[in-house]
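A reminder before we start the practical. When you read a complex entry, don't treat the lines as separate problems. The point of joint prediction is that each chain is placed relative to the others, so the output describes one connected object in space. Small molecules and nucleic acid strands, if listed, are placed in the same frame. In the example below there are two entries. Take a minute to note the order of the lines before looking further.
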Amino acid sequence: ILNVEQSPQSLHVQEGDSTNFTCSFPSSNFYALHWYRWETAKSPEALFVMTLNGDEKKKGRISATLNTKEGYSYLYIKGSQPEDSATYLCASPRSDNTGKLIFGQGTTLQVKP
Amino acid sequence: EPEVTQTPSHQVTQMGQEVILRCVPISNHLYFYWYRQILGQKVEFLVSFYNNEISEKSEIFDDQFSVERPDGSNFTLKIRSTKLEDSAMYFCASSVSGTGQYFGPGTRLTVT
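Here is the predicted structure of the whole assembly.
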């Protein structure tokens, strides 16, 4: 059974702080790792799809790294802004890529002005 | 930018009643999914649909649940006889190729 875990569950930071959180997954039969950003009452928005060990992707102030050998991915936010407040979800498909995503429990970020 | 839409945004129903949750996937997408999130728990997969048939379903997706793509546009999830434990946020997603899923905003189902 593929189990995806995220930590911490929630995070409160001040505007301007940089922050990071973790997604861990079984390193065997890895196929891909997805990061989503989910604001209340909106659709979860795809941030990154990562497939290669050592991958690093960036979108503005947000970046992510991937270590498939040890089974973790970090999401970094540089200089957090109040609009970054959201729940960040990671998810991984099964190795045969049927599309079924297994989600972590999410990290809820609150950025205080 | 194309997006997945879902209606209604919030549905309140009594236990034992049937509900239909509606989704309009992105028009050129071929793979369709339903997920749900019970409050405080992980988002969990319910069912995937491709080529007009279910390609995979989870243990949660029992005989009370069904999906349909009645008109080539809408993708619906029906719960025949709702239970209290069906209360959750239900998300529809669609994909061109089975990866890179685009999610709708969800329907919050409350069963009383």
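Discuss with your neighbour: The first strand of chain B starts at residue 5 and ends at 7. What might explain this?
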